[in-house]
Specification:
Layout: E1 4-5, H1 15-18, H2 26-39, E2 45-48, E3 51-54, H3 56-65, E4 70-73, H4 79-93, H5 98-115, H6 117-123, H7 137-146, H8 150-169, H9 171-179, H10 186-192, H11 197-209, H12 222-226, H13 241-256, H14 264-284
Parallel strand pairs: 2-4
Antiparallel strand pairs: 1-4, 2-3
Helix pairs in contact: 2-3, 4-5, 5-8, 7-8, 8-9, 8-10, 8-11, 9-11, 13-14
Length: 285
């Protein structure tokens, strides 16, 4: 992979690749821009058949300021292989929300399962037995890569499929869920995987219109605080007990789905969100 100087006019921008991952926050982009203006573009842009697959923010900055840069080219057999590689690189590099981590791991699972479909189909052959080393190979490989269970990887894949379907109805609704602006639990998204399309359309429309409300029995604090407080149960427990437990469960699930490579900033963001929810709940009492 030798580095080479290149003409920016020769670089092809693919819309699917450029929109695959969320844009940097404004302050993050400004910080990167300042660093490049001072030190130059130290990291080369990565290309596949002249298509930019890594370094979209650096590309925008060097183009804006007409700065010199270098490129390297990688070889892949398909677009799906490129996307899988891009996800792996960016998960380790970006500060992603817990829902974004879930989505991209699930997307990668679905892509790699399609790429290695023959292996998956052979592994499911009953004649090979449950001890077949190929059993669940894609999920096992990704679980080792991200240090989480194969079950979590497969659940992530369900959620990714639902988010893709929501995005087809409203890209804004999908973005809102991934950014954390719209609160919806993983459990609720997984339940939608087996629901009719009308439910996904309804959810996407409501999120885009700003009228969506998380189900009262879903995980998370916001739904129970924004809706009527549950009546005291027959056992005499406080009406907010289930709210507190659900919020704690969601926080623990977010922590469990993080890998050892999760950046301190992402971990702090997750903890701060939970603290803010607790403070809102505290003020409601």
């Amino acid at each position: 992979m030798p580095e080479k100087k290149d003409d920016i006019q020769k670089i092809i921008i693919d819309e699917e690749f450029s929109r695959l991952l969320p844009p940097l926050e404004e302050h993050e982009f400004c910080s990167l821009e300042d660093d490049i203006l001072i030190h130059g573009c130290m990291n080369p842009l990565v290309l596949w058949n002249d298509i930019l697959i890594d370094g979209h923010n650096r590309y925008n900055i060097v183009r804006k300021h007409n700065l010199p840069f270098k490129t390297i080219s990688l070889e892949f057999d398909s677009r799906d292989e490129v996307i899988s590689w891009m996800i792996t690189i960016q998960i380790y590099r970006r500060n992603l929300t817990p829902m974004q981590l879930t989505y991209y791991r699930g997307l990668q699972y679905n892509i790699e399962k399609k790429l290695h479909g023959d292996i998956e189909r052979v592994s499911k052959n009953p004649a090979r037995g449950q001890n077949d080393p190929l059993q669940g190979r894609t999920a096992n490989r990704l679980s080792e890569q991200y240090k989480i269970s194969p079950r979590t990887i497969k659940r992530d894949a369900q959620i990714a499929g639902v988010l893709i379907a929501i995005g087809k109805e409203s890209e804004e609704a999908k973005r809102s869920i991934l950014s954390g602006e719209t609160r919806i639990s993983r459990k609720q998204l997984r339940e939608m995987a087996s629901d009719p399309d009308t439910d996904i359309i309804k959810t996407a429309t409501e999120i885009a219109a700003g009228t969506f409300e998380e189900k009262p029995d879903a995980q998370g604090l916001k739904s129970a605080v924004d809706t009527k407080k549950a009546a005291t149960s027959k056992t005499g427990s406080h009406p907010l007990t289930s709210t507190i437990i659900n919020g704690a469960n969601e926080f623990l699930e977010n922590i469990r789905t993080m890998s050892p490579s999760t950046t301190p900033k992402t971990l702090k963001t997750t903890i701060r969100t939970y603290i803010n929810d607790l403070e809102k709940l505290y003020n409601e009492i």
